[in-house]
Write a structure and sequence with these properties.
The chain is built from 13 helices and 19 strands. It is an alpha/beta fold.
Length: about 425
Amino acid sequence: MQVRDGVSVVSRPPLRAWALVNAHLIEGNPGGYAGRGGVLIADGRIAASGPDVRADSIGEVPMVDAGNRTILPGLIDCHVHLTWSAQASPVATLIEERELPATLALRAGANALAALQRGTTTLRDVGSPNAVIFALREAIARGVSPGPRVVAAGCVITTPSGHCHYVGRHATDAGSARDAAIAQLEAGADLIKVMTSGGLHTPGSDPASPQFSVEALRQIADAAHAAGRRVTGHATCDAAIAAAAEAGFDSIQHGSNLQPATAAALARANVGITPTLDTRHFLNLHLDDPAIPEVIRTRARTTSLNRGDAYQVALDAGVTVTAGTDSGTTFVPHGALPTEVRLLHAGGLSTRDAIAAATWTAAREVGLAGVVGTLAPGASADLLVLNGDPLSDISALEDVALVVLSGRQVSVGDDAAWSRLP
C-alpha cells in the first residue's frame, strides 16, 4: 500500500509495452479503419494501431495473439445511475440506502465493476448522491477500487417536488437555478444534469410537462459553460426538449415525444440525444411483475411507443445519437450497453454508426474526445476484445473475451488462456 494525500492507495506494477496482434480492428470513428491488424500499447496509451502492428514488426515487445478476435475501443455509456439497484422499485431502495452511505457505496462499486466486465470502460453517471459518486470516481482513478473511468454529474438540478428530487439540488426560478448549478460545480461535478421535465420514476412529477423556464435553463447552461463543463437535460416531452435547446444545452437525455420541428432545431444547433432505448426494452420484458410500482407500470404502458418513435424522428432529422442505458432504473442492468447498441442499430443506425454511438461519438458527448473511444495513437488504451465480429452480427458485443483499461487487462472472458501476457 502507498499513502497519497492521506489516502491509502493500492500499489500497481509499472506499466510496460505490450501488443495485441492477429486481430480484426474496428476504429470507433465510423469513417476510420476496419480490418486486419494489431494494437501496440505503451505506458497505458495506444502507441500504434492498424495493419502494420504485427508479430514480425514489433521486435521484442511482449505480445498476445488475439486469434482473429475483434478489437475495438472500450465502450462508453453516456447515461447510468450507479447508486440505483435496477430492481422493480429502485427509487425506494435508493431513498432507503441514502441513509446507509457505506451500503450505497458498496452497491455503486459493484455496479461499476459489472459494467466494466461487460466491456464498458467509461461511463457517465447522471444522477447519484455527491458523496458516494464523487468518492467512487476518485477511488477508481487512484486504483483503490476496480471499475471503468467515471464522469459524474452527482446530484441533478430539479424542483423541490420534481423528478428525482430525492437526489437533487432544488431550484424554483432563474436565480436559484444558477445558484444550484454553481454549487454543484463547486462540489466537484464533471457536468450538470437538469431535470427539464418530470419523469417516470417520481410520483407527482409530470413527464409530459416542463419543470423550468427557458431563462432558468439558460442560467444553468451559462454557469456550466463558464466553468468549462457540459450540461445535459432529462427531457420527456417536446416542450422541455425545445426549451433546453433554446437555453444552450449540449445534449438531451431520452428525448421522448420529440417532434420534427424540434428535431430539426436540435440538428441545426448540434444538440445530440441519448435515447436510452434500453429502459422501455427491459421494462416491457417485466411489465407484469407485481413488484413494479403501479405509477411506473401505468406510465410505461401509455408511453411505451413514444421513445422509439422519437428516436426515428431524431434520425430522420440528422440529430447526433449517443448510447446510454439508464442502467439502475427498473430492471435495466448495469453493463447493458451492448443491448442499447443493438437497439440503436435495429432502429436505423448503421452498424458502424451504432458502434460509434458507444465509442467515438460518445467520447465527445462525455467530454473525452481523443482520450477514449478511438484506437488512434495517443488515446488511452481502453480496449474491448470480442470473440465474434459485430460488423457481421451486432450481438457479438455481448461475447467479451478481454477488457483492457489504460493498458491493463482488467477482465478476461471464459477462454482466458490466450490473453495471458508472456
